[in-house]
Design goal:
This protein is α+β, with helices and mostly antiparallel strands and 365 residues long. The chain has 14 helices and 16 strands. It has two domains: 166 residues, no CATH class; 96 residues, no CATH class.
Length: 365
Amino acid sequence: MDVADRRQVLNFRVRAQQLDRTGGSLADTAVLDIGVQDTGPDGSRWALAVRGVDVAAVSAEELTLLWTVRGAPHLYRRADLPQVAAAVEPFSDADAGKRIFDAARPLKAAGIGNLAALDEVAARMRDVVGGPTVKGEVSGRLAEMMPEPYLRFCRPCSTTHLYEMPFRLAAVRAGLELQLDTSPPVLRRIPGFTKAATPGGRFDLIRAYLRLLGPATPKQVAGYLDAPVKEVKAHWPADVIEVEVEGEARWLLAADEEALQPADVTAIRLLGPFDLFLQARDRETLVPDPVRAKELWPVLGRPGAVLADGELVGTWRPRRTGRTFTVAVQPWQKLPGTRRKAIVEQAERLAAYRGVPLAGVDFAD
């Protein structure tokens, strides 16, 4: 059994996710194989930018935004749509039931299978969305069409809706994508949509997790997918090696064994709050200090993270007042002048990405 310490693990992930590179294209950006979560103003395209992609030069037609893993919006290459649609499918009816949470209970009571329910919602959604349609309109029309087991009363809205997770997870099955840069979300049909019979190697979500966030356990992968551990184990790759990380047995794709060997990485990055690097389900590996972990992953209002040479060294938040844009940094350790300068450079890059001038960087130490 191989043995790796947390520093090796973090450095492996920095390199696997290409956070140490200065240039790249959509075609060679690895995180697009698993999907890049698009939450908040510093979402998916900022995640591409910190991995060296010139997002200003990327055409919107090269990308697609879908509700997929955990029902969250994720960005993918449009060319990969058939494989992505197959990869994000639940493994089984039981898996679908776990992914849709409390919506599974009334379906079960009515004798409706979870996958059958997703297919029914998808068929109705496809009928409703003939052209670009705001989410609220789609939801309202579906609530008029679907029978009671699919519906719930929403107290904040004081109205009846479909359960949220079946609504979101059925969209890809219906051949629908989210129109980029719309709030509230606008759904539209995907031109010429087809789903591949199988997801293919690099789009297989378990393999992709191990390749980008490994070494990992089945439980950690299941947590990322909102899938049952039993299902993840049943689909566990055969070509893996066992790695001991701080006394715990984990697994890595055998092809990546050499990449886990000790090697330094050099990069300063301002990661968005939902960057893939922060989505790993072994948070204690990323941030061993529980106080710091609570600061980075609060229940509401997540900050971004400062990544410096393979280690998370603080948090950051954008502060915008009128035309003034400031980045507030909360260091977790004393930062030498060279790191401060590099963080300021990254803040300038973020401001340019947002299209606003940077007023300054406030270091709270």
